[in-house]
Amino acid sequence: MGEILIGVDGSEASQRAVHWALDQARGRDLGAVAVHAYKPTPIRNPYAGAYPYVPGDPTPVVREHDRRMQEQQDAHDRQHAESLIQHALDEAGWGVDGPPVRPLALARDAAKTLVEMSEHAELLVVGSRGRGGFTGLLLGSVSQHCAHHAHCPVVIIR
Questions:
Q1: Angle 51-41-86 from CA coordinates, rounded to 5°
Q2: Does residue 132 form part of some domain?
Q3: Number of domains in the chain
Q4: What is the CATH number of the domain that holds 109?
């Protein structure tokens, strides 16, 4: 069974894309993959500049502290991404009677991820946020990249 790939970013256009894609999945008897790819938030240790003035070598302690802080931040980012996807699915009325949908949160570049995943999809559906000086005329950078490089048909919802 084929799948419809849905890019989810939390915008209004993305929400309309999720709704449209799930209707298409129902009508075509296809499954769907709802993907939110995001840039991980790097941690910044505000005390790093003070470490040269600490007696002894604080490096192992600092590295362990920073590693733990980054793990916590990564978990928070992933939880936020997963809840964003779930919210989009809930808003679109997805439920038990709908098509099977696999939510997928990935700490990767959104445009590249969607293009790579489009190799195994029957259709890629994304929303267009249309940022820039000519908001009404331009596609968002992710939707534009997908339109030019995807391996399957692309539908861009405004």
A1: 150
A2: yes
A3: 1
A4: 3.40.50.620
Convert the pLDDT of each residue in 28-37 to its tens digit: 999 999 999 9
111-114 long-range contacts, CB within 8 A, separation 24+: 111/141, 111/142, 111/145, 111/146, 111/149, 113/35, 113/37, 114/5, 114/7, 114/35, 114/37, 114/142, 114/146, 114/150
| 133-138-140 Cα angle (round to 5) | 100
Global model pTM greater than 0.70:
yes
Q: Which domain holds residue 15?
A: 3-39+86-157
At 43 the pLDDT is 83
Tell me whether strands 154-157 and 31-37 are parallel, antiparallel or unpaired. Answer: unpaired
